[in-house]
Amino acid sequence: MDTDSDVLLEVKGLRTRFRTDDADVTAVNGANLRLRRGRTLCVVGESGCGKSVTARSILRLIDPPGRIVDGEILLRRDGSDGRPAETIDLAALKPTGRRIREIRGRDIAMIFQEPMASLSLVHRVGNQIGEAIRVHNPMPRRQARQRVLELLDQVEIPNPERTIDAYPFQLSGGMRQRVMIAMALSCSPRLLIADEPTTALDVTTQAQIMDLLVGLQHQQDMALMFITHDMGVVAEMADDVAVMYLGHVVEKGPVDTIFHDPKHPYTRALLDSIPRIGGARRERLSTIRGTVPAPADQPSGCVFRDRCDFVMPGRCDRIVPPPIDLGPERHVRCLLHGGAEPEAEVTTSQEAADAG
Amino acid sequence: MRIPLLTAGSRRARSRSTEDDTDGRTAVAPQWKLVLRRFRKHRLAMASAVIVVMFALVGVFAEFVAPTTPSDYSADHTHAPPQRLHFVDTTDGVDLGLYVHGYESTRDEETLAREFTVDEDHKIPVGFFVRGEPYEMWGLFGTDRHLIGPEDPDERMYLLGADRNGRDMLSRIVYGTRVSLSIGLAGVALSFVFGIVLGGISGYVGGRTDTLIQRAIELLMSIPTIPLWMGLSAAVPREWGPLQTYFAITVILSLVGWTDLARVVRGRFLSLREEDFVLAARLDGCGPARVIGRHMLPSFTSHIIASLTLSIPLMILAETALSFLGLGLQPPVVSWGVLLQEAQNIHSIANSPWVLLPGVAVTVAVLVLNFVGDGIRDSADPYR
Amino acid sequence: MWAFVTRRLLYMIPTLFVISLVSFAIIQLPPGNFINTFVAELRAQGQGVDNAQVRALEERYGLDDPFLVQYGKWISGILLHGDFGQSFQYQRPVSDLIWDRIGLTLVLAVCTTLLSWAIAFPIGVYSAVRQHSVGDYVFTFIGFIGLATPNFMLALIFVWISFRYMGESVGGIVSPEYADAAWNLGKVLDVVSNLWIPVLIIGTAGTATLIRVLRANLLDELRKPYVTTARAKGLPEWRVILKYPVRMALSPFISTIGWILPTLIGGEVMVSIVVSLETTGPLLLDALSSQDMYLAGSFILILATLTVIGTLLSDLLLALWDPRIRHAQTAKG
């Protein structure tokens, strides 16, 4: 499987922890993901489940007191852009070092949730995009400006000549997100991470931005990691899906199998909570019982057991479900599907202490 | 992104039911309790609060705490240097007990300046709750008990040295504490009235009234305060008694000092006006008085307390500056600024630097009040 | 932008008007008719004053007129002829006495502002970027001490140290040997060597405030998403910080100049009195103590006016610095 030449980035057993005086929170707890060229991976889950932290861990953008404590993030360069083919473990790089900086924006680019807050309000659009170009490809300002105009045109901004000299506060939300996308695309990255890029936008603009992203992805043959909490968006965008809950990837697989044959009770619950057009009028939308517990209060055993309708007392609270292979690229972490045998009773020391 | 925020409840029990209980309790804990809980965690602020309380106690019980009275002078002890307080006497055997050494003074034939040397043979025992200079406690009853002092009332003790009239600096600083702190408090209290009324009106009514009050505040803030204070206090008639001067200075200090507070109050009002719970209260039919009194004020009391705490040091500094220049309080009133007047004479500073000690008192008081104010502000709003 | 400038200039007029009213009120505050004081003073010096002279003075200052008329005479004298009235103590026109002193005060204030910035900027940035580091704690602590110590106290300590260890009394901007010399390099160096310590002392509180403001602002800004965006582009860390959050954090920093100026002037007055520099401070105190009110009032008027102008300049600087303010103002005006 590791020889799969389409795999651009592989996350193995990633653990990201936030340590403060008061507590120690593991925001991402052993996540495994695989991103392939030309495909879209949607990472889905409720807020606070570790989606964003996973994405930021990849680019090493976690602010202290957060820290990657375990796992590997392997980036494969195939040597097509003139740089030597190699595999780099991003998790082992220094977060402010030169190597990771060469990767940011060039191999992997990222766009964020709030286009208003994510752009500097006191620098002109052209300045902010041009800087992203020139940091990796030194070129004269004039030439960079030309490239910015092309990019603005590419993300379908009307009247690029005017927008390039505008300040972000003079633009609408949708336009700002387009500027963000133009910035991310400026060095033709091979992986684009989009962290809920449409959440702050209205519905029509959302659809436009998603269309734009899909179009650009095909055009440039990028891998796309799309983070969202909206199963509707997943259905529309995804090739592969990873469902996260409380720092764990509880289920992942190709989009069809996830939607038509969900295995994890949490995935099922998420799918049940999508409103359906044409459903019975007075039918109540199903919701998931309870709320996501604070990350510091992780239950022992299976993290979802407190809210699970199929909880098996005596097992789910004692055994941490291991990933179970259900076919090619298809995994689930739930004792309903195996892994409950006594020899599989693996608990980390911390969780054992918690249970006791 | 939301970094998982760790709240006070992060050490909660794991099971759902108890967690819900704790949540419920947190939700109904009154604002001041939450603030107090956060304040306790602030080590520097807590330590400073203890020192503030000590300052306050010294101010309140000044007569008792001071070894003698501030006007008790001795012509033989002009600019006597500070004495060292000894705890154990080892000259013959070990003898526990506090004592200081007396002075041997000589007069320089040429300069006529008095020079002091420590007289090792002259031992002055020091004790607690000793009899000394008689005084009237709070003007209520007469007594002569002092917290600390020489056991023999006829001996003299200068732990922090003496001024040019041979008066005890320690006692004078202790009495100065009362005046300086109280003038800070009184000035802040007056500013508080001005600030909260005008700032409240400005923030709640808004519109033209707001603009007018804001212009007035900006105007006052644009005038350099020290020259303004100097100008105003110079106008206080010299023949007024100490009490009248005291009040006049307080009024002058707060006339200039209310603007900061008014801005804080207004800013809070403006941001709170937009809050949903205020809108909800208004939609529920609460009148302005109730909206302000029941819903808005409680949610920023701690901010006001923080601002008040932070303005006291400003008042103290201003009073000290004015009195130092001779424009504020006048002797025989004793405040830290008045005491520092002695330090205007370069020879006093050069030969007896302990006349600068009241300034140390000012610095420490201002420092700890700042720490406490900052602590309250941080606890009132942990996200700022 | 020009609309903004014009509006700010127009705002200044009522401010200056009220300032002049306050200054005149201060002149009028001391009880008693100052002409009497004046005459008494002249007589005490053994000069005869005839009634005609007294009448002329009364006429000139309009002493029998109501407050506003007197104010009118005073302010039109200043605006039309630059006549600030008469100093009784020095028996000279106020305008003869003040301008040299005001000039020196201005030089001191400008030097202090520049020095405060030069010190506060790197320290503020360092303290925020390396929050909780030893350096941060040290600077924060020193900053607090600087805020809490009245600067005349610092000046006194300085006087004591220099007397004790250098054996000389300090004071004066120009050393005696250069007093009558024309301006040359030696004299400039002499002035600089005499000035840098007062400038440092005057600037302590202001510098401490600036460090605190900059540190707090920068800490807020460092956590904003646009900083992450800049990092995600692959920019070096120092460039990320200097170009984005520092730029944003400087906006409030610039607007603080406006309200730091009054403190600076106040500090300058106090410190100059202690180390006896030939600036406004000692003369103002002298004038107030001897109730030489035209002199004192004029000082207060001019100092306040200078502060208002300084505030205006800082507002304009802010508008140049921050496009949001510039555009918001244009949109409204």
UniProtKB/TrEMBL annotation, chain A:
Pfam families: ABC_tran, oligo_HPY
Subcellular location(s) per record: Cell membrane
Main location: membrane
Gene Ontology CC: one annotated term: plasma membrane
A molecular function (GO) term: ATP hydrolysis activity
Membrane topology annotation: Peripheral membrane protein
Sorted UniProt keywords: ATP-binding, Cell inner membrane, Cell membrane, Membrane, Nucleotide-binding, Translocase, Transport
GO BP term (any one): peptide transport
InterPro entries in the cross-refs: AAA+_ATPase (IPR003593), ABC_Ni/Peptide_Import (IPR050388), ABC_transporter-like_ATP-bd (IPR003439), ABC_transporter-like_CS (IPR017871), Oligopep_ABC_C (IPR013563), P-loop_NTPase (IPR027417)
Domain ABC transporter residue range list: 9-271
Family per similarity comment: Belongs to the ABC transporter superfamily.
Protein name: ABC transporter ATP-binding protein
TrEMBL record, chain C:
Pfam families: BPD_transp_1 (PF00528), BPD_transp_1_N (PF19300)
Residues spanning the signal sequence: none
Predominant location: membrane
GO biological process: transmembrane transport
InterPro entries tied to this protein: BPD_transp_1_N, MetI-like, MetI-like_sf
Membrane topology recorded in Swiss-Prot or TrEMBL: Multi-pass membrane protein
Occurrences of domain ABC transmembrane type-1 (ranges): 102-312
Any one GO CC term of the record: plasma membrane
Membrane-spanning ranges: 9-29, 102-125, 137-161, 195-214, 253-275, 295-321
Protein keywords: Cell membrane, Membrane, Transmembrane, Transmembrane helix, Transport
Keyword Signal annotated: no
Subcellular localization(s) per the UniProt record: Cell membrane
Source taxon at top rank: Bacteria
Family under the similarity heading: Belongs to the binding-protein-dependent transport system permease family.
Name listed for the protein in its UniProt record: ABC transporter permease
